[in-house]
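Internal tracking record. Fields below are filled automatically when a chain is submitted to the structure queue. Please do not edit lines marked as system-generated. If the sequence contains nonstandard residues, flag them in the REMARKS field before resubmitting.
Queue: standard
Priority: normal
Entity type: single polypeptide chain
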Amino acid sequence: MHKILKNSWALFLGMGAIMLAYGFQGSLLGVRAVKEEFSLAATGFMMSGYFVGYFIGAIYIPKLIARVGHIRIFAAFASVASLVILVHAIFVNPIIWFLLRVLTGISMVSIYTVAESWLNDRASNKNRGSVLSIYMVILYGTMGCGMFFLNFSNPINFEPFLLISIITSGALIPILLTKRKPPTFKKIEPMSLQEVYISSPFGMVSSFFYGTIQSALFALLAVYAAGMNFSIFQISVVTFLLAISGAVSQWPIGKISDMYDRRKVIILVSFAAAFFALCAIFASGTMYYDGMLGSSKIWFYLFIVLFSFCSLPMFSLILAHTNDFIPKEKFVAAGASLQFTFGMGAMGGPFLCSIFMNLTNLNGYFVFLMFFHILIGVYGVYRSRVRPVVENPDSQFVAMPQSITPAGIELNPTTEPIEEPSKSEIKPKVNNN
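SYSTEM-GENERATED OUTPUT FOLLOWS
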């Protein structure tokens, strides 16, 4: 553990700062959209821009990294992200914000790709599971903490946008000052979508639906809470609980999925997440009743935690389930294809969810989440009837963030072994001139 931190502290510190700003930014834009009285459709459209940019960047950035290099790409796109958030404060318009969110999405997938390929290069067969665990904790922990920065200043003011820019720019310092040699970028070719679908129809379809869920879940929770007249602190609490409880649940649910039929575990957590989304609707409906009829927001927080506990491990479950049906040497390629499918679903999630909210009311947010979790569960039941479970000794659950890139998937200890980093790669480069 000490060696991992020693070799990668600059990258972990930089990514922590990036995710602190990212967690703050997502909640800030949602609350500001409500205060600016953007329509729900306009807000959903605007927030979906991030996932459009993420999808575009995931296709083209690997080629750019191979040509330009890791440090330059990290510096360039962290700078773009830092500048873009300031433009949000100058031009308050949903169409302009959509374009800015596209740039943010491209920037973030570039940063993730650099960070994860760098970590993969630093890892060895003995420690890459530990590296991935530390990376997970940093991503979810700092993103959750960033949401409390909403209390820094009124979202209507310029200062919150300035603070995000400062934090993002500060993330550059440890990366640019590191003496470590950057990795050699290795582009990972995905399996064809047809090949992945033939191997695991449930994995492919559920990945698409879950992308739709996941993008709307984080993009519009602050919008929902602001529309329900939550205070800024209460919005911070509910978004923090969503991120942290989902991270904590990865390991116990993953352990259960390794012990029992993984497909049945996905079905159960899907239906459980839909049930807790329904409970959240009932809890929110009584929060503002007068006197004895009114319920505490504690119940709403509890159902958000339980919903997140069931829902957030699902991408890792889906990835492990898909690996159950393919040989070990294709794990990374299949993961890359699932990420592509996830991204296709994610692009439309926030906008589609906003339509649900327009057709019903703000609780259409939870109706949307219920609907797509039930779709995954029902399709899983159908697939269970037409295809028996397969025992694959090479496949096991590994907790991963939903934003993982193919380079990060290689940190999975069950994938094809990577070579131990050589001493020449670990030692700082010495200039004798």
